[in-house]
Write a structure and sequence with these properties.
Blueprint (H helix, E strand, L loop, with lengths): L1 E6 L3 E3 L4 E9 L6 E7 L5 E7 L6 E3 L7 E6 L4 E6 L8 E8 L9 E4 L3 E6 L1
Parallel strand pairs: 2-11
Antiparallel strand pairs: 1-3, 3-8, 4-5, 4-9, 5-6, 7-8, 9-10, 9-11
Length: 122
């Protein structure tokens, strides 16, 4: 298993950018798919993006319109989510999670961080 800790969440104005980090500890970080999920108040959990272990494959939720970029640095055992042109509807708690499967299905992700709050004001 791998332990995950998110950071970087803040309160920002619409149009600004944030970069979230997901620091991992444990064995063989490079073998895990890292996914970012979010949960807005009163809504269900939503897959945001995922990246394969080697970093060569990424996928995003269609609703993002290309505003977010997921990346990872396996030497630093850290994954990132660059979020540009933030909108109020991006307000949510953002979680990173690790899976051995390349999927958007949250049930396949067995290790989760505690979440980091992102708040976007109009």
């Amino acid at each position: 298993q791998v332990q995950l800790v998110e950071s970087g969440g803040e309160s920002v104005q619409a149009g600004e950018s944030l970069r979230l980090s997901c620091a991992a500890s444990g064995r063989a970080f490079y073998t895990f798919v890292i996914g970012w999920f979010r949960q807005a108040p009163g809504k269900g959990q939503e897959h945001v993006a995922r990246i394969a272990g080697g970093g060569g494959r990424t996928d995003y939720a269609d609703s993002l319109d290309g505003r977010f970029t997921i990346s990872r640095d396996n030497a630093k055992t850290t994954a990132y989510l660059q979020m540009d042109d933030l909108k109020p509807e991006d307000t949510a708690v953002y979680f990173c999670a690790a899976s051995l499967l390349y999927t958007s299905n949250s049930s396949a992700y067995k290790s989760w961080g505690q979440g980091t709050q992102v708040t976007v004001s109009p």
